[in-house]
Write a structure and sequence with these properties.
The chain has 8 helices and 6 strands. By secondary structure, the protein is of the alpha+beta class. Helix 6 runs antiparallel to helix 7. A hairpin with a 2-residue loop joins strand 2 (about 30-35) and strand 3 (about 40). The protein has 2 domains: about 1-60; about 75-169, Ribosomal Protein S8, Chain: A, domain 1, CATH 3.30.1370. It has a 3-stranded antiparallel sheet, with helices on one face. It starts with a strand and ends with a helix. Helices cover about 55% and strands about 20% of the residues.
Length: about 170
Amino acid sequence: MEFIPVSQAVLRGLKKDNERWLRRLQEKEVVLQEAPDGVELEGPAGEVWAAKQVLSAMNWGFPPQKAFKLFNDTFFIEVLDLKLLVRNEKAIARYKGRVIGMNGKAKRTIEELSGAFLAVSDTDIAILGEFEDLQDAKEAVVRLLEGATHSAVFGFLEKRNREKRLHLR
């Protein structure tokens, strides 16, 4: 059995969406048992790994319906640790503010233009999506953290969308 620490909020979310979650795990032959401060998973290594990714995504703040996408082999998650960039709390808050934007507008725009999902926690920015979408969203976030203007970053994402559409033809 592998222990995965999860927050109380995630445990509540699992209980709320229990039927769907348990059905998904049963399909994957994974057994989940609640433990103090987390859960224990048992089953085939690859499936336990996928369930661990889903739980981690929920820990970073993704709702279950988005986190469950990680059961699909085409979805990935990547986490940017802001503590590696800066040490002081004010700088971290400023970086998070640039990614979130006024009333969440920048975050929503990055999600809409890239197709990936973002979750901003205390010191991390998690990005969940299909590989190419995740890479585009990550590049947009990194550019914002490096000081690029929001309009330049959104322009980059719009250009990437045009390139993707051309490749699909």
